[in-house]
Design a protein that fits this description.
homodimer; eight-stranded mixed β-sheet; alpha+beta; 19 strands; FAD/NAD(P)-binding domain; 371 residues; 2 domains
């Protein structure tokens, strides 16, 4: 059995690019033994290009803004194709601080948003509490980023799967065992158990596992562990995403659905250790309680650890490689949910036209030098 | 179908007294829709009559000491009857303190142990750390109670069930719907779905649910919520139980099995609210990390809330009631695991001889006045 394209990995990235490519006429197969069980399972779904503490490179920022821009239309098309409307929360992000140092960080962040032409409002403590009444009285001030959105990755993933299957994508529930090559060019995937899937092009979308697939030249992706908490009974507690710096640690609280709240996330370099630790959970709870004391009464419904696909410059790896027929769509680090639409479209463009669109061109793996 | 005795509740108390009564020739039926899913599921299994902050009444202390005394033989008999050896950890309890106030509490606790003739050793901070090297360097001193034991309630419960069944006890997996009476005397239990179990004597061992069984006169038992954490990967971290006062909150850490650790417990008056809360988990983690910083690296494997059967004087309710044929074995509050052997023997004595043994006599419900 052969296809135009075989995609290794059925997470948000793999499924969305498969959907977009299939809509444009390609035959696509996705291989994943547990679609949706990876990084998206733990992601909070913040769509916030510049609320992160590090401002990042200009090219990455443009990519993030482009993806944020197309999110509403992306979800509209998803709804049109599947009948499933994935809600987009549009209350923005409120970044809050507690002391003078924090206020200086907020001022810099405000300047940066203004330079980018983004709508941002500086708030005094009482103004921040008027917007989010459950904030701690110790909050000194905040910055409201009106254009930030959020989405629940656990709702997005099944919708993308339905859309992909509706567009004719075949999903194979096997583990990817390696890349098949022929004369130095990618020719398909080897599966667990010995089966082979042949295709003209292979897309590697294995997230943190993209770095070590047999047959693939070294891809500079490493797992960056993140622990998160999911709360219930949070109805009415927060209107939108709240981020804060607490003693140098960044914490975010993202409302989900009717009564959910995601609190995240640790950032740990521990390889593929997937342990939920007492220390990780403690730090997240401690910081969340500092920002929103009412979190204390919420049900702690789930604790979880997953791995972000980290790269040396924290930007994704998109497009062709030194192996003909092998395409990368990985390395999205903390921005996988945000970058899903732009990645899907860029990789579909590449598969159909042979060219990456300009916005994605800076993210080819050759920026790290020839392998 | 009739039996000599029908027991409402298949927790540690219900099963152990059923086992002891059946061994003495009575026909016994136990009714529980989910045996072992109650308070024992969350209990840490400390067998520590006087390590608790409150010293309690003298009669309760005697009952607790009597039960501790018979634990080794109780487990020997259990092993003889079932072939299952439930391990008894005998490293004692180390009670530690951080400041002058704590040191005064430890001194009082030491005096009290000495008065009772119990073996107790006062330790300087470095001596405490020699015994338990993972203790925080901030620990100022400790008290080692050599005779305290601990057991894993999750190992004890299935062994008791096997022993009871081996002795001929019938276990009925139904919910108890009410007490059957006839001319003012107990005659059996009504089950969900309308079935009835007739018996000469009914023993009420429903733990926190003992207070509101239809047909039973008011029993002064209320649910006292406790949240606990179970950790894994704790091999070698602690030798025995460690207790501490942390800013007025009591926390305990009890090693279980090869690599388990139980951290407990909150004490909350919230009725039958069974929510694991962010605040409860935070406080337990925070206090445990204060006492043993290495807890930070452990896997947080499980969080759980259950209810202790509380009474107005925190002592159990044992023996006859104003309803002929209705016997109580409930209200064990924080001491259910510890008091299991003495309760089982006392109630079996009552069922066989018509008399409660002297050690249990102070715990009849009539101490709260006539109903």
């Amino acid at each position: 059995m052969t296809a135009d394209v075989v995609v290794a990995g059925g997470g948000l990235i793999g499924l969305s690019l498969a959907w977009r490519a299939a809509r444009r006429g390609l035959s696509v197969t996705v291989v994943d033994d547990a679609p949706g069980s990876g990084a998206s399972r733990a992601a909070a779904g913040m769509l916030a290009p510049v609320s992160e503490a590090g401002y990042g490179e200009e090219a990455l920022l443009r990519l993030c803004l482009a993806s944020l821009d197309r999110y509403p239309a992306f979800l509209d098309e998803l709804a049109a194709d599947t009948g499933v409307r994935v809600p987009l929360r549009s209350a923005g992000t409120l970044v809050v601080g507690f002391d003078d140092d924090d206020m200086r960080v907020l001022a810099d962040l405000q300047t940066f948003h203004v330079e980018l032409g983004l709508e941002v409002h500086r708030l005094l403590g009482r103004e921040a509490r008027r917007r989010e009444p459950s904030l701690s009285p110790r909050v000194r001030g905040g910055l409201h980023v009106a254009g930030d959105l959020s989405v629940d990755p656990r709702e997005l993933h099944p919708a993308l799967r339905a859309a992909a299957e509706g567009a004719g994508v075949r999903i194979v529930g096997s583990r990817v065992a390696g890349l098949l090559t022929d004369g130095g060019a990618a020719r398909g995937l080897a599966l667990d158990g010995g089966a082979e899937l042949r295709a003209g092009t292979v897309v590697l979308a294995l997230g943190p596992h993209s770095g070590a697939l047999p047959g693939v030249p070294a891809v500079p992706v490493r797992p960056v562990k993140g622990q998160i908490l999911r709360m219930r009974a949070a109805a009415g507690l927060l209107e939108g995403t709240v981020r804060a710096l607490v003693r140098g640690r960044s914490v975010y609280l993202v409302p989900q659905g009717d009564d959910g709240l995601v609190v995240g996330a640790t950032v740990e370099e521990r390889g593929f250790d997937g342990t939920v630790t007492a220390g990780g959970v403690h730090d997240l709870l401690h910081d969340a309680l500092d920002v929103v004391p009412g979190v204390s009464e919420l049900e702690l419904a789930e604790t979880l650890a997953r791995w972000r696909p980290g790269t040396p410059d924290n930007a994704p790896l998109l497009g062709p490689t030194s192996v003909p027929g092998l395409v990368l769509a990985t390395g999205h680090h903390r921005n996988g949910v945000l970058l899903t639409p732009v990645t899907a479209d860029a990789v579909a463009d590449l598969l159909v036209t042979g060219e990456l669109p300009e916005v994605a061109a800076p993210f080819t793996v050759d920026r790290f030098g020839a392998p």
